[in-house]
Amino acid sequence: MPPRGKFITFEGLDGSGKSTQIEKLARSLRAHGLSVSVTREPGGTGTGEKIREVLLHSATAGLSPLTEMALMFASRAQHIHEVILPALAEGRIVLCDRFTDSTEAYQGGGRKLGIKPVVHTSFTTGSVSVRTSRAAKVSGIEIIAAA
After folding, report:
1. What percent of the chain clears pLDDT 90, i.e. is strictly above it?
2. Does residue 133 surpass a pLDDT of 60?
3. What domains does the chain contain, in order, with CATH numbers?
């Protein structure tokens, strides 16, 4: 049977401590001899980082909600193809700063698209899905980790 990695995502608002918690977990897992990849969305690949720049640049603040969501999923599709699936196939643990829960929150809720367009569009990105989401409080900060 080929190695099968684990995909763990960290969701939360900007500044909530996701990156700090990801790095702490990565260090701990590596200290136990496990192979870990750390990545983020949007981004995680050369193409994804360019899309991230477009999404976060103030000059593109006027993007339509659908355009913004399409760019998010374009970044995710490349991310899955180029980084996530190969790492999982090698048996690595992939820790990702944001994934589908953030898209549902930011594009579905924040940009008022609703959950249905986000869920329907998510099927275009490939074969990685999050099976369960768990919420936890760490030092008073609520963290949702999906694995």
Report:
1. 53
2. no
3. 11-17+35-100+115-146 (3.40.50.300)
